[in-house]
Amino acid sequence: MAPHLLQRSLDELISKEAIHTVLQPIVDLSRNRALGYEALTRGAPGHLLQRPDLMFQAAHQFDRIPDLEILCIRSAIRHFSRQQSDGLLFINICPQSLLNYAEEISELTERLAHNGLQPTDVVLEISERFPIENTGQFLTLIGHLKELGYGIAIDDLGSGYSGLKLWSEIRPDYVKIDRHFIDRIDQDTVKQAFVSSVVHLCEQLQCEVIAEGIETQGELNLIRSMGIHIGQGYLLGKPQSKAEFQTPEHGLSLTSPVHANGVEQPIVNLCQPLETIAASLPMREVDELFRDNPLLMSLPVLEEERPVGLLHRRKLLELFAQPYGRALFERKTVGHFMQQNPLIVDCAMTLEAVSKVLTDDDDEDLRQHLIVTCEGRYQGVVNSKDLLKHITDSQIQKARYANPLTLLPGNVPIDEHIEQLLRQQSHFYLLYLDLNHFKPYNDQYGYRQGDAVLRWLGRLLQQHSSALNFVGHIGGDDFVLISQEADFYPLCEQLLQAFNQQCSEFHRNDDWSRGYLNAHDRSGQLSRIPLLGLAIGVVPSTLIENQDPQSLAQLAAQAKQQAKQKTGSGWHCLGQEMQPILPVAIKAAGH
C-alpha cells in the first residue's frame, strides 16, 4: 500500500476516533473467576486499519503511537465503566507514551472519576517490547502512579528490551509472561525452565505471575502445576464487548483435568516418595542411611522443600574407598559431593516428554532417578528404568491395537477411552466420521489411492485436534474423534473446511472440474457418482442412557446417517436440527 494512503487512513482513524474496545478476561484460576479484563482495541468494521496489528504498525511507522494509545485509553475507560464490573481494568501503554502522557496523569485520574472508576481499579501494562529512553524520569513517574493507587504490570516479559532490569527497578504488581513461552509449554522443557525461574523470582519479589496465550488444556495444567494461578488466553475466554467470564460447564477443567492413559499420562502417576537429606548433613550420617537401606541408590537433597541436588551411593563408596577416604570425607557435608544438576521435571509433564528429556541427556547419573516437583516443591522420584519400561509397555499395547493403515488407535483403545470418560462422568462429544461415496471412489481410483485418502484423513483429524481430543480409526473409512472441548461446532467447521480445501488433491482434474465421477453403479449402469465428501455425526455424552457405551454406539450410527443424507460434506448433532451441508463443488470454486 502507498505510504500516503496508509497515513491518511491512520489520521482519519485517530481524528474520527474510529475505534472500539473489546475485553478479554484475566482469570483467577484458583477461584474460577475473573480477576479483571484486558482492554483491546479494534478499528471500525470495514476500516482499512480494522486489525489492531495493522493499526499499531501504521502508528509506529508515522510516529503516532502516543496519540493512538491515548485514544485507546479513553475508549477503554469509557467502555469498561459501562460494564459495571467488579474486576480490574488492564490497559496497555508503551513506556514512551506514558512519558508523553505524564503531564496529563491528573487528567487520566479525573477521567476515571468522571466514569465512576478510580486508580485502584486500573492496572497499567508496560510492554517491554519498547525501549525506555529516559529511565530516571520513567521510574519517577511509575512511583507517582503507584502512590495514586494504579497497579503496574510488566507485559510481554521475555520478548523485548528491558527484561529483568526493568522488572527489578519497577517492582510491578503483576508480570505477564509472553505467550511465546506458554505456547506448548507442556511439551518444551526449555520453556518450563524459563517460566519456573520467573515464578521463583516473583515469589521473592512478591508479585503475581500472569500466563498469557493459554490455548490448550495441557498448557493450563502445566502452568497451574508450576504455581501460576492467573491466566489469560482463548481457552479461558476470547475478547468480546461485554466484561463477562463464565466457567465452562463442560470440557474445560480449571480444577481436576482428566489425564489420558499411556505415554500421555503425567509423570506424577509414577512418582514414589523417597527419604530426603539436607546439603548440610555430614557424609558420615549419609553413610549410615545407605547402610540401613541396601536398596537405596540415591538421596534427593532439599533446601526449603526445593530440590538442589542428588547424592548417589556410588559417589559415597568412591570417596570412602580411597586411602584414608573415610577419615578425610566423613565430616564433610553433602553439599560438597552431591550432583548439583539433577534432572528435575514438573509433575504435569507427560511420560513421553520426560522420556525425551532423559534420552537426550548424556549424563550417566541421570539414568538413575528423576526428581518430580509440583510448584517447584519436592514430590518424590521416578526410577528411570521404571519410566522407560512403562513407556515401552504402553507403546507395545498401543501398537497391538492400532489400525495398521493409519496407526491410529483401534476399537479396543477407543472403547477404553470412552469407558474412562464415562466412569469419571466427564462431559464429551463423540464425532463419528465417515467418507461419502468412498466405495465407488475406491473402485474408480484403485485401492492404493483409497488407502492414501484414509491416511490423509487420519492426519487431518490429528492436525486439528488439541490435548482435549482423542482420535481413533474404527476401520475402513470410519473414524472417531472424542472431544472434551467446550463446543464442538468450531471443530466440525474447521474439519469440513480443511477437508474440502484439500480433497481436490485426491481427484483427477477432469473429475474435480466436472464435479462428479463417471462410474458404474451397483446395477452396472454408467452413472454420475458424487465426489468424496465427509459426514460427521455428533453425539453429546448427555444423551447416553445410564452411561452405557453400547447406547453411545447406536446414537453415533444414527447421527452419522443423518449427516450422510445429502451429497457433499456436513455434520449433524443429535438433539439439534440438521446442519447445512457444505458441497464439495462450492468449496472447490473458492466461494
UniProtKB/TrEMBL annotation:
Gene3D superfamilies: 3.30.70.270, CBS-domain, EAL domain. The keyword Membrane does not apply. It comes from the Bacteria. Residues 338-398 form the CBS domain. Keywords: CBS domain. The keyword Glycoprotein does not apply. Residues 426-577 form the GGDEF domain. Residues 3-253 form the EAL domain. This is GGDEF domain-containing protein. It comes from Thalassolituus hydrocarboniclasticus.
